[in-house]
Description:
This protein is mostly helical.
Amino acid sequence: xxxxxxxxxxxxxxxxxLVSRLRxxxxxxxLACGEVLSxxxxxxxxxxxxxxxxxxxxxxxxxxxxxxxxxxxxxVCDLTETDLEEIITLRGALEILAARLVTAxxxxxxxxxxxxxxxxxxxxxxTGELNRLDLDLHEAVxxxxxxxxxxxxxxxLRPQIERWLGTIFREQERLKLEPRTVTxxxxxxxxxxxxxxxxxxxxxxxxxxxxTWRVWLGTAQPPxxxx
Length: 227
């Protein structure tokens, strides 16, 4: 294999790894809303050249986690009520459809996969790990629905959902709640409904699961075990 083929692959791999690290820093709040990101500083911090940093930031811009100003500066996107409402409504449309489709075709393998993910959530060591496992469960539901274009529509939204979920976990901690306990309780309930075969109940459960985000980010404290 010639060097001119190998080199771009290695560079792409490096940029992909940097995307994951920067995305996680935004999700957990290590890189805060409005924070200006300097390509030279990030290159020094992660021990890479500016090329992979630029590629990583371009990917994060596509994910709506960072934005470029007219002057070329890069900053972490703010989180606004409009952002939340758009994410909730779009996520709801996609995941409620997934709940309807998957409940009608549920298999023991689906139960095993979600049970495995819930067990992993119970032992998550950090909220960052819990966040990833939470979205892994929702992605598993969408994949099990067997609708390729639905999955294609949901995957680009996942980084934004993860970022908002990180904000919710921090709010739960502020309220002296344990995010891991809340997440596991809610997902156990969701699993029970999805495998019941009751399509209408599954739609209702997924609707409630997603729409309760508005409560977590408001002043009211939701009932334990309800999401």
